[in-house]
Structure formats: C-alpha cells, structure tokens
Amino acid sequence: MLWLPLQIAAANTYVEGVDYVKIAGIPESKTPVVREFFSYNCGHCYRQDPFFEQTAHLLGDDVSFERTPVGAGRTSWILSQEAYYLAQKFSVTKQVHGNIFSRIHEKEGAFTRPEQLKDFFVSQGLDGKDVEAAMNSADAKLALMNYDTQAQLAEIRGVPSIVVNGKYLVKNPGKTPEDLVKLVKYLNSLPE
C-alpha cells in the first residue's frame, strides 16, 4: 500500500501558479496543441529556438506544435511577424525559419523596412512580385491581426512563451526539452 501515495505524489509534481497558470485562453481548432509565442527579433527566442525545436520533435505526431509571432507594436517586430506570415504563405517555414533568426542576430540586424523583407525572401528563392503581392494582401493584414489577437487572449507578457491547448500558460518549462514534454503531457491529462 505504500506505493500508492508515492505514485500519486509523482503524478502531481506540477503546481498551478508555479509551473503553469490557467488563462482565459485562445480557441484552438484541435487539441493537443503547444503554441510558442515568439519574435524573430528576441535574442532569448533565438537562443531558445533549438530547445523548442527539440521539444516539437519529441512531441512527435501526438501534439501539434504551432508558432505565433508577436509584434508588440514595434515596427521591426511587426516586420518579423510578416516574415513568419510569408514563410507560412509560401510553405517555406522549415527552410527559412533559422535563416530569419540568423539574418537578424548574426548578420544584418532587424528588418526595418518592407523592402528588406522582400529582398530577404527573394534571396531565399521566391519571386519578388509574388512576395510583394503577398505583403500587400488583405490576407497579410488579417494574419497579423490574428497573431496580435492570439497574443492578447493568451495573456502574453513576454517571449518566448508557451501555451498548451489554448488555456495553460507555461511558467516553468524546465531545463530540458524532455522536462517540457512531461509538463505538456501532464497539462494534456487535466480534465476539461
């Protein structure tokens, strides 16, 4: 009988308010979903990207790993949101995600003008007219508004931030991707 209390104690190793907080949330079309709120301009996001990439790999097909870029009302951050939109629109996210971080943090710095964003995507093999048309589209404006709405609903106060299933904001992701995966599995096990 002694093993039962130990088993229960092991199952309850996460504490609401310490490891995660429940938020009003964002509607997710599918669960389970882990959503990273980030900015290409954020140095911490840049350094943490391998951590989150490894976490996504460990989650496998059981959990959808999504990203939402945060603009925070800053021109260069909004251009980075647009970079993410363009990567998604042209289905080149895997190809350019690391390149955008590298361009900003190791090479030329943040995007400060739309022309720089266009030139970057042309350098990645896309057609300039297609990129420009996408940048000026109503879809682009709606996508950026959607990103901002998601960040507001998820109560994002800084990046990178992780939200699980649209309702749990992770406060303590742990020291390793495996730690974060365990927390995600725990949050996925909580009753609706």
Q: Can you describe what's shown?
A:
By secondary structure, the chain is an alpha+beta fold. It has 8 helices and 5 strands; from the N terminus they run αββαβαααααββα. It has a 5-stranded mixed beta sheet, with helices on both faces. β4 (161-164) and β5 (168-170) form a beta hairpin. It is globular and about 50 Å long. The protein starts with a helix and ends with a helix. The model is unreliable at 1-10 (pLDDT under 50). GO terms for molecular function: oxidoreductase activity. It comes from Shewanella fidelis. Disulfide bonds join 42-45.
Secondary structure layout plus pairing:
Layout: H1 3-11, E1 20-22, E2 33-38, H2 43-59, E3 64-69, H3 75-89, H4 93-107, H5 114-123, H6 128-135, H7 138-153, E4 161-164, E5 168-170, H8 177-189
Parallel strand pairs: 2-3
Antiparallel strand pairs: 1-5, 2-4, 4-5
Helix pairs in contact: 2-8, 3-4, 3-7, 5-6
Which features would summarize this protein structure in a list?
single chain; 192 residues; alpha+beta; globular; disordered N terminus
Order of helices and strands: HEEHEHHHHHEEH
Give the termini distance in whole angstroms. 30 Å
Number of strands: 5
User: Count of helices?
Assistant: 8
Percentage of residues in DSSP E strands: 5-15%
Radius of gyration: 18 Å
**Strand line-up in the sheet with most strands:** 1-5-4-2-3
The main pleated sheet reads as: 5 strands, mixed
| Average pLDDT figure | 92
Structural class: alpha+beta
**Helical residue percent band:** 40-55%
Identify the overall geometry: globular
Q: What's the multimeric state?
A: single chain
Low-confidence stretches: 1-10
